[in-house]
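Supplementary Methods. Inverse-folding protocol.

Structures were first reduced to a discrete structure-token string of length 349. This string, shown here, constituted the complete conditioning input.
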């Protein structure tokens, strides 16, 4: 056997071994997908997981769709444009959302986070099913300004999506229902539950609160937890928190219910990941958390339908000393989940 022949045999054998090793590595990577895991300190999900069985293929399709700009009219805006992972899946730095043609919305982009436990969606609760929620931004003229049927036509022309839909659902048929379910599978996996607070509650890694964090936690439980209930740090209700009515006279919940009793009520947001999600409130009017606390302590207005919790004993707002505010801010930092905003599986691929 000549040296050249021997060399070729060794080369082919080496390539074979490399290919097998690469395939093994791919299989090992795939096998790490665990699907939806309920954190032990969280309640049972609200979303009906049995009606949309979460699979790796469905999640990967949903992730691709979440970052797909073809969901918009001019193929420039994706869900991820207004829900940026490093910003806790909000549009950090913008008071209100910036959509197609840089059109301005009227509300701050809410985070894509722990939606599996939500009964309603949007600041006004106008959507009741996670599987239907994406239709709103896709068709909204100041967000994506597209028709669902046009989105489906665009996806059908791309071999990538024909393959992804086939893997996720068993056939290559691309439908609205399948697209919505795939997006839900991605959003279901956007679980934030690995903050210091969570680790303390689960007694993990020997984590404990510092004295100032513990003091802030006590103040939180006394003065904030009626609306921002643990462990999600929202009770999912709609409340008027005494903000000065903005220039666009956003009526909040009443725009969905058409009930004047819901005027200026907005969904109670979660307090998780606040370090990543400024600015704050439904219209992003406060740039800092100090501004938020100042509002509750000194600036609550006697607006129509003001929440009863903010008007007790003849006084408006929440009694907070300067020291209370500092300790509250210290506690709120324990709700930051760095893992959530850096997870590679949630990032655009």
């Amino acid at each position: 056997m000549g040296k050249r022949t021997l060399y070729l045999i060794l080369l082919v054998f080496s390539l074979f071994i490399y290919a097998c090793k690469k395939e093994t590595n791919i299989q090992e990577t795939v096998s790490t997908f665990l699907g939806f895991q309920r954190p032990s300190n969280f309640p049972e999900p609200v979303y009906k997981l049995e009606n949309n069985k979460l699979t790796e293929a469905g999640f990967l399709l949903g992730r691709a769709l979440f970052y797909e700009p073809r969901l918009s009219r001019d193929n420039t805006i994706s869900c991820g444009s207004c829900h940026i992972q490093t910003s806790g899946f909000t549009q950090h730095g913008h008071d209100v959302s910036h959509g197609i043609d840089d059109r301005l919305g009227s509300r701050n982009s809410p985070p894509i986070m722990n939606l599996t436990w939500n009964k309603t969606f949007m600041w006004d609760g106008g959507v009741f099913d996670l599987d239907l929620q994406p239709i709103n931004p896709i068709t909204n003229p100041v967000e994506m300004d597209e028709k669902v049927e046009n989105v489906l036509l665009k996806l059908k022309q791309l071999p990538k999506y024909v393959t992804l839909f086939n893997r996720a659902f068993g056939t290559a048929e691309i439908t609205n229902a399948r697209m919505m379910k795939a997006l839900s599978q991605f959003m279901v996996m956007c679980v934030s539950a690995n903050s210091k607070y969570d680790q303390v509650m689960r007694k993990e890694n020997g984590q404990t609160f510092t004295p100032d964090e513990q003091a802030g936690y006590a103040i939180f439980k006394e003065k904030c937890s009626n609306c921002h209930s643990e462990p999600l740090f929202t009770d999912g209700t709609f409340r008027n928190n005494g903000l000065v009515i903005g220039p666009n006279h956003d009526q909040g919940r009443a725009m969905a219910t058409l009930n004047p009793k819901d005027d200026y009520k907005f969904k109670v947001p979660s307090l998780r990941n606040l370090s990543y999600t400024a600015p704050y409130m439904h219209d992003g009017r406060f740039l800092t958390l100090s501004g938020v606390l100042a509002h509750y302590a000194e600036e609550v207005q006697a607006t129509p339908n003001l929440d009863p919790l903010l008007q007790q004993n003849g006084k408006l707002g929440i009694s907070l000393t300067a020291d209370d505010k500092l300790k509250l801010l210290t506690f709120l930092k324990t709700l930051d989940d760095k893992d959530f905003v850096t997870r590679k599986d949630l990032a655009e691929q």
